Amino acid sequence: xxxxxxxxxxxxxxxxxxxxxxxxxxxxxxxxxxxxxxxxxxxxxxxxxxxxxxxxxxxxxxxxxxxxxxxxxxxxxxxxxxxxxxxxxxxxxxxxxxxxxxxxxxxxxxxxxxxxxxxxxxxxxxxxxxxxxxxxxxxxxxxxxxxxxxxxxxxxxxxxxxxxxxxxxxxxxxxxxxxxxxxxxxxxxxx
Length: 191
Prior knowledge:
By secondary structure, the protein is of the alpha+beta class. The protein has five helices and six strands.
């Protein structure tokens, strides 16, 4: 059976807000009529619960603490398993990082071995080329030779410039490449 109530009473009976009542009126979920400035809503009477149903709800409420206790145990178990999984993940990550470091070290050693093998092979194949091109030495080799014999960079520079000015046959300046060519000979007279 339906009865006619105000929107405020409908909100109280339905346990919703006044805005909720107006929303349901607009969406046509509640029947309503307007009389003057007031809106009235048709609400179905909710019959009182029989005594048997009240006893069942009381019994369900008694079981509620037991259910909550079981839920708490489940939550505790889930927290423990989460901690264990986190610990496992952390240990796995650290293991992978250690393995990565080991792999990087192995690769670095392999790179060093390859570099040394490359340098050895270059020396093996470079010697015949050097014997063919042994006419000239590089400026760096020349300066390192003089530095080993006590000359500094400024003195070496002056020695090379003076030799070029004197037109010493051991020193030549290539105008195209703009490099100084130094013959591979004895330079003990410059020390």
